[in-house]
Design goal:
The chain is mainly beta and about 130 residues long. It has no helices and 12 strands. Strands 1, 2, 3, 4, 5, 6, 7, 8, 10 and 12 form a 10-stranded parallel beta sheet that branches. Strands 9-11 form a two-stranded parallel sheet.
């Protein structure tokens, strides 16, 4: 099955894309509370603004390019196969499992789950 695409929309609501699969989201504003993508897989964000306290958590296969993360304090919690690039500071990251995350600046980074292999986590400041 191919990838579905959402462009130039405002996406809101709790669990707005709960269990979504193979979805490309481009040039959108994404405002949500907790776990809007929970149990989703194969999600791509391009040139999006994402505002979510506990956003982008519990996702398998997430790609982000040229996105802005706003007020996101618990990003990427228990996410696997993530390749993310933010053009703005990421306020907080909690227990990612296999990620590459690039941003100009980071707030709090929590890695307190001893079961997670930290060699699978790459966090890079781009400035």
């Amino acid at each position: 099955m191919g990838t579905n695409t959402i462009t130039q929309q405002l996406l809101t609501g709790e669990r707005a894309l709960f269990q979504a699969q193979d979805l490309a989201i481009r040039d959108c504003v994404f405002e949500n509370g907790e776990s809007p993508l929970k149990e989703s897989r194969g999600i791509t964000f391009e040139n999006c603004t994402i505002e979510s306290l506990q956003g982008l958590c519990y996702v398998d296969g997430l790609t982000m390019r040229d996105c802005r993360l706003i007020n996101t304090t618990r990003a990427f919690e228990y996410c696997t196969d993530i390749d993310a690039q933010s053009t703005t500071r990421i306020d907080g990251i909690v227990n990612p499992t296999s990620v590459i995350i690039r941003a100009p600046q980071f707030g709090e980074i929590v890695q307190n789950d001893p079961a997670i292999d930290r060699s699978q986590i790459t966090i890079v400041e781009t400035e």
